[in-house]
Amino acid sequence: MTDNYLQTLNDSQREAVLALDQPLLIFAGAGSGKTRVLTHKIAYILAEGLYPPSAILAMTFTNKAANEMRERIGHLLPHIDIRWMQVGTFHSIAARLLRREISLLGYSGNFTIYDEDDARRLLNNVVDELQLNTKQFPARMLKGVISKYKNTLQKPQDVTESVSTYHDEKIARIYAAYQDALRRNNAVDFDDLLLLPLDLFQNHPERLRIYQDQWRYVLVDEYQDTNRPQFQFVQALAQTHQNICVVGDDDQSIYAWRGADIRNILDFENTFPNAHVVKLEQNYRSTRNILEAAHAVVVNNADRAEKKLWTANDEGDPILVLECFDERHEAQRILRRLQKIRSNKSLSWRDFVMLYRTNAQSRALEDELRRQGIAYRIVGGTKFYERKEVRDILAYLRLLLNPNDEVSLERVLNFPTRGIGKTTLERLREAAHHGGIGMFEQLIQVTALPVGPRQKNALAVFHKEISRFRKMVDSQPPDDLVEELLQSFQIREHYEQLGDIEGQERLANIQELVASVAEYREHNPESGLREFLEEVSLLTDIDNWNASADAVALMTLHSAKGLEFPVVFITGLEEGLMPLRGGFDDRADLDEERRLFYVGVTRAEKQVILSYAVTRRRYGALPQPMMVSSFVRELPEHLVEHKALQVTAKTSGDQKATFDSIAKSRSGEEAVLQQGDKVEHAMFGIGQIVRMEGSGERARVTIKFSGNVSRKFIAKHAKLKKL
DNA sequence: CTTAAATACTTTTTT
DNA sequence: AGTATTTAAG
Fold it and tell me: pLDDT tens, A272-293?
């Protein structure tokens, strides 16, 4: 049986599966069968009885990847019980570990996991309490800075020692106070989830030894996206037995902005000196054209490990490039093309994906899909569990489990409105912190609070009701508990009273939440509310995506990592959007954008269609003229079929009008042009001025573009960019 | 304290 | 453009 499935692997894949006595680094190019190797490797270990399932620890970045891996291993080994095999995201594995161990670090096991929004609320409170201005220290910025500190393993003390400016000193103060507040709330943020296990290992080596003994073989997927804490976590677990296997591709590293450290992959051999390296370079996914195109772009990056994918697949179709007038036109053109391919190649809706750089770009595509009545599934955007009404209910539930969670307490204290306003809340917080107790505890003694009798009563009633529910948490099934909670706090009534469509929608969402709790209970009869909340807070965008539904998929390029589709559309390929210009033009940033583009292209099996719009509207502003992305220009001409925009009578009146008005509005500060200058035209791309006629308002230029195309423009209206 | 109106802010990607 | 938060009126 073992031989059977090893035969389906190619030589390097087999080598990667069988290499077990040294640390192993697998360079796995896009579509080279990385997941296959990981699952077969684990299956091999288990089938040969080298280690039991409980000794396997496999870490991924999304729950979807983890579930798939578990499922595929189960499929390979139908007779082995793999329930005790640990496969999960870094964050969920760390959370599970902390539930058991965190009391050693001064938290309690019922800690709450704070997401971005919770953390920001807490930061605002902290800044308030330090009597600083939340405008001068916006939570968003603070969270980013603190995250960076945490990702580089800098504690508040380290930061405090190294600050120089007033601003930095304050931030260090806030960081320290934030960390204290988290502890007071018995809460951890996403970064802590990875950092606290490191503290545990350092301060309690005997605990580390237990996990080293338990997890005898450690595997890491998407290793190029690990950050420093994740690396140390893995290293700590594997350092004694050195049984570690990591799989990654530096060309697909797209999370440096979140602290992913590409050195983790490039330095693997330094950390594990006798590491074995296997490269998987045969691609099974894409056509030759797609692979060649992707390669032609990514070779422009500095600092990449030298490798080149190859494939035995057909040459396939050329890369189509659609030039569009604006985002609406882009959506129309994409759908026309999609329909055409679908009927020509008899594909299903699910065979198509539309990718974009930013979530906001989905709107135009969605509008057109809806207009044409085509089923689509969108990944990301406003997530279900981030809706206000859903979060409010979750806040109640979190408070039941962890009464120290003041972010949740403050969220529900006056929801639905019960006459407890800002002042009352402030007084309550003051009294509690002054007395060195939690706000929830303070609710027991409301008589001493300097607030009105109505407020006192409301607070007391609230406290009594929450306390009643707290006693029920462990005995009641979670879905019943939620239902009773909705009743008791009259939450449905609150939305019914609104009597508008929005209220109806929110009611429906609450119903969906109840259903999802019930569904969770059904699938996990042994788990309770705590486990449900943990799962919910560690969900990733892609986890909710059902690939089997027959619908066109829409998602960001980031979400698409690890997926594959017969036909891939990459939209919005304009300079400034893809690559996205963010602040400074750092070389490393541009390279990461290029890798993102590479990830997008290599998702495709059969065909890649790129599109860009000549004008695009960005958040309510007037449409801006856009230039085609430099990445598109890096594609070799022989692989590309360019479908240019026809500026003829076909172009509708209002499109022309808009374009003219943009040209006019932009013509104010025109650079002085002269013959021989290289210029860029929004619609035609780069060209050279071959002739100039007239001057001032009536100056005309003749420009020769690539492909020996010449055009004549009125300089004032042509919106030319001098290069 | 609550509701309605005004204004600020967003859009980079996410565990 | 749309949402969220802040401010003013009730």
Answer: 988 999 999 999 999 999 999 9
SS3 A65: helix
Q: Residue A282's pLDDT is what?
A: 96
Neighbours of A662 (CB within 10 A): 19
The most confident of the ranges A43-47, A116-120, A419-423, A456-460 is: A43-47
**Nearest partner of A542 among A60, A83, A31, judged by Cα:** A60
Sign of CA dihedral A250, A302, A356, A309: negative
Among chain A residues 398-427, those with CB within 7 Å of any atom of strand B: 414, 417-424
The residue written with tokens 């209002």 in the block is A654
Considering chain A, what percentage of its residues have pLDDT values greater than 70?
A: 88
pLDDT digits (tens, 9 = 90+) for A3-46: 567 888 999 999 999 999 899 999 999 999 999 999 999 999 99
* Cis previous bond, A156, omega within 30: no
CA–C1' span, A366 to B13, in Å?
20
Distances (CA, A) of A530 to A72, A203, A463, A537, A666: 28, 27, 21, 11, 57
Q: Which residue is nearest to nucleotide B13 (CA to C1')?
A: A558
**Is A252 a known active-site residue?**
yes
Res A651 pLDDT > 90? no
A134 touches strand C (CB under 7 A): yes
- A533 vs A415 pLDDT, higher one: A533
Catalytic one among A118, A221, A261, A541? A221
Q: What is the mean pLDDT of residues A326-351?
A: 95
Q: Which nt has its C1' nearest the CA of A426?
A: B1
Q: Which bases of chain C come closer than 7 Å to a protein CB? A: 1-2, 4, 6
Q: Could you identify the residue written with the tokens 């009105």?
A: A452
Asked if pLDDT for residue A401 goes beyond 70, the answer is yes
Round and report the angstrom distance from CA (A617) to C1' (B10). Answer: 14
Whether the beta carbon of A140 falls within 7 A of nucleic chain C: the reply is no
- Residues in a beta bridge with A702: A691, A712
DSSP letters for A88-100: EEHHHHHHHHHHH
**What is each CA distance from A573 to A309, A330, A557, in whole angstroms?**
24, 11, 12
Residue with tokens 């026809």: A646
Give the model confidence (pLDDT) of A16-27 as tens digits. Answer: 999 998 999 999
Distance A651 CA to B9 C1' (A): 35
Query: Which pLDDT does position A49 carry in this prediction?
Result: 93
Residue A175: phi and psi, rounded to 5, are: -55, -50
Give the residue with minimal CA–C1' separation from B9: A619
Q: Is A209 a catalytic residue?
A: no
Catalytic residue among A118, A222, A317, A327: A222
DSSP assignments along A447-512, one per residue: TTSSS-HHHHHHHHHHHHHHHHHHHHTTTS-HHHHHHHHHHHTTHHHHHHHH-SHHHHHHHHHHHH
Tokens of A720: 């030319």
Residue A406 known to be catalytic: no
Amino acid A192 CA to nucleotide B8 C1' distance, rounded Å: 32
Residue A240 has pLDDT above 60, yes or no: yes
Question: Is the per-residue pLDDT at A472 higher than 70?
Answer: yes
- From the Cβ of A619, is strand C under 7 Å away? yes
pLDDT higher than 70, residue A707? no
Nearest nucleotide from residue A579 CA, by C1' atom: B12
A409 contacts A439 by C-beta, under 8 angstroms: yes
Which nucleotides in chain B lie closer than 7 A to a protein CB? 1-3, 9-15
Q: Which of A178, A102, A99 is nearest to A137 (CA)?
A: A178
Say yes or no: Cβ of A377 under 7 A from any atom of strand B: no
Is A719 one of the annotated active-site residues of the chain?
no
Q: Is residue A304 a contact partner of residue A265, using CB atoms and an 8 Å limit?
A: no
Interval A494-502 mean pLDDT: 78
- At residue A668 the predicted structure's pLDDT band, cuts being 50, 70 and 90, is very low
